[in-house]
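Researcher: Let's do a round of design. I'm pasting the structure tokens now; please hold your answer until I've finished.
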């Protein structure tokens, strides 16, 4: 049971870690598909194990990420193609949100990963692995929902899919030597409350805790870190495409105050191509009225970047708002 206590100014919970479903992808396809759909309906979050991404691909990406974040600030700031992409420290997005982290936000379409440095090789292999895994999970979701297998996955596998890779580095708050732009106290937020705008998110973190899921009404539960698993969550687009049957659950990351190890999360956001039209297929509507109007991913992104991190942005696309 979750036992909550009120401590100003942030509500702190005393709780067990939430047991989100752990799904073994090596199981029988039809059974795995059902389990995933159930997890999407009940939690919007689940973990996958036996995911098939080779250990060395993940390890390489992690090592390269740590090496990158160890570089001097000025060198890191030169990386990337500018706001919102590239290196960022404390600033999140374009509307004034901040957090206790530094990050590297990368576009992942084939044109973006071109150079052949060790770092970009690690990124290409990692992105190839997580994209394939995302497509496999999206196909299992389609099977579980009884819609054509590639209904969701084809959006992510297309050449111009707008998917992103985000490397988030949360150094221990007690250590001020790594980045000069970080300060904070015990209960500081690393990355504030939000839902993910895309279709599906695949997060892999090292063994340091920080991710929390909102149960609503200000109650937060932590997700235990597991370097061998991927934590998967539904994004706004999949909520819209399932007419609200799956929910894009709000989550956040706490600043890393409890250990002297850095937390590193490597997050793949699967997005459709900009011109893809987002709408709920008739098979999923059944007799229900559509909750959201049709919109393109480009339109949704414009709306997303025009608002703050914590906004429930799908509400704007509701038919009866
Ligand atoms: C949240 C999920 C992803 O990290 C992200 C974020 C994006 C950004 O950092 O540029 C946004 C945020 C995220 C949603 C609202 C807008 C856009 C920051 C922000 C304030 C890369 C994404 O796609 O949306």
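Researcher: That's everything. Go ahead.
Model: Designed sequence:
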């Amino acid at each position: 049971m979750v036992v909550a206590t009120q401590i100003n100014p942030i509500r702190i919970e005393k709780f067990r870690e939430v047991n989100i479903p752990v799904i073994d992808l090596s199981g029988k396809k039809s059974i795995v598909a059902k389990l995933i759909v159930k997890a999407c309906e009940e939690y919007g979050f689940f973990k996958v194990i036996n995911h098939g991404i080779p250990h060395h691909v993940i390890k390489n990406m992690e090592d390269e990420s740590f090496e990158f974040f160890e570089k001097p600030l000025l060198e890191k700031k030169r990386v990337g193609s500018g706001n919102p992409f590239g290196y960022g420290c404390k600033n999140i997005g374009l509307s004034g949100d901040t957090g206790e982290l530094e990050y590297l936000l990368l576009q992942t379409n084939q044109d973006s990963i071109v150079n052949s440095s060790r770092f970009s090789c690690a990124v290409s292999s990692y992105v190839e692995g997580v994209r394939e895994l995302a497509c496999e999970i999206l196909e299992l979701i389609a099977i579980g929902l009884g819609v054509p297998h590639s209904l969701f996955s084809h959006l992510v596998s297309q050449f111009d899919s707008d998917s992103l890779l985000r490397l988030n580095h949360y150094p221990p708050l007690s250590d001020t030597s790594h980045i000069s732009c970080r300060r904070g106290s015990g209960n500081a937020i690393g990355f504030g409350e939000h839902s993910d705008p895309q279709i599906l998110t695949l997060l892999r973190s090292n063994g340091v805790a920080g991710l929390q899921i909102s149960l609503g009404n200000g109650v937060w539960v932590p997700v235990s870190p597991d370097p061998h698993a991927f934590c998967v969550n539904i994004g706004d687009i999949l909520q819209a495409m399932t007419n609200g049957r799956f929910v894009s659950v709000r989550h956040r990351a706490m600043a890393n105050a409890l250990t002297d190890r850095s937390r590193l999360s490597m997050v793949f956001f699967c997005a459709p191509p900009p011109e893809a039209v987002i709408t709920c297929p008739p098979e999923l509507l059944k007799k229900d009225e559509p909750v959201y109007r049709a919109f393109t991913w480009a339109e949704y992104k414009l709306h997303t970047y025009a608002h703050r991190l914590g906004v429930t942005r799908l509400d704007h696309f509701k038919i009866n708002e």
